[in-house]
Every structure is written in structure tokens, then in C-alpha cells.
Amino acid sequence: MNDIPLARRDLIADRLAAGQRAVAAALALEFGVSEDAIRRDLRALAAQGRCRRVYGGALPLSPATTPMDTRIHEARDRKDALARMGATLIEPGDLVFLDNGSTNLALVKFLPADYRLTVATNSLAIATEAVKRKDLQLIMLGGCVDPHIGGCVDANAVARLREMNVDKCFLGICAVSGLTGACAFNPADAAFKRALLAASLRCIVMATNEKLGTRAPHRVATIQEVDCFVLENNAPASEVDTLIQAGTSIIQAAALT
To answer: Structural domain tally of the chain?
Structure first.
């Protein structure tokens, strides 16, 4: 009998790892236990860093907890599909800000070649790719580099950002939830992203499925403050509906072949 709570907890952890939400009331009914028992399970899993507690249950962790130099090599075909679609939102002459993020890095190669674009970024990886494009004017925000984030998010970078009028920003976010909005794990990164949002006429978020329905500690924007989410072709319909109901627009990438 002593192994039953551990087996239940492991099953809940497996579902969270697969990107599913944990709703205490539903789990209590499923396993025939009290909601208090489920809440104890969720507290234990949160203490182990395996989920984030929210009212009524828990959300899976976002994959964006891993360093930028690791995420660059993950799910490239899916990120390319998002980037191709995201590039269609750019207009000639735009000042486009590409925030730190592996999907935003993928966008560099899809930027239209004849649009006279200016690309600004605080990301070392994005700047390295953008400078290879002779048709782009590049602005690199300086400051102290955070190796985990892969770019500059300190006071120097924020001060420079506040001097800019950005036409479109592609905001790099760690987690998206209809309940908690677009969020980040690092407080300095979140502060930079909020400053970027304030400096931009339009805000766009490209998000892989793993980030949907997850949360991180620091809110960057409400769902309504994001003008458009670019999602995968097979994004869960429930998550798409939640975002639309929260007050944003959605476009979806082409299906992978």
C-alpha cells in the first residue's frame, strides 16, 4: 500500500512531462482519493522542480529552462516552419527586434531580402547570423552577456532599448498560458522583455507546442498585449481557443512534410 501514492505521483509526473496540465479535482476523481492527497503530490513534484503549482492544480515546466546554446539544436524543422510564417508579418522598411530565442534565431534566414530591413537584437547568436546578411542593417544592443540566456538583458541594454521605436518585436518567451500570460524564468530577462514590449508598435510571439499551457515565475505580457501568436500547425485546439478567447490573434504554420 505504501507504494500506491508514489506510483500515483509518478503517473502524474509523467503526464506533466508530456505537457499535460494537472487539475486536482479531476485527478482526485480519477484516482479515488481526496483533493488534499493530490495537492500533496503536486507540492512534492513542485519541490522536485517537475512542475509549477497554480490554483487548482499544476502546469508542466517549459522547455525554455535549458540554455540557449542547447535549444538552438532542438526541433529545427518545427522552428523553421514557425519562422517562415512569422516572416510573412514583416513589412518593407520595418525596424524588427529579434529577442533572445532559438525560434527567433531561425527567423533570420527567412527575412525578406528586398525589404530594406533593420534588425536589432540583444542576442549574440542572432547577431552572428544577421551580420552575414549583407541586405540587413544590424543593431546590436550591448551590455553584460548572460551565458544562460545568450545575450544582454542588463540595465545598459534596457536603456538603449528605451531609445528605440520598434515596428515589430518578436518576443522570446519561456512559457505561455491563458491563465498567466507570456512569462520568463529569469527576472532580468523578464524586465528586458517588458521594456521591449513598451518600445514596440506590434508584438509577435512564435511558440512551439511545448511552451503552450506552461508557466514561468515572471510575467512579461498578458495575452492581450501580444498582437499575434504564431503557432505550429498541430497546436492543441484547446490551447489555441484559450489564447483567442483571451484576446489575441493566431496564425498557424504550415504542416511539416
So the answer is: 2
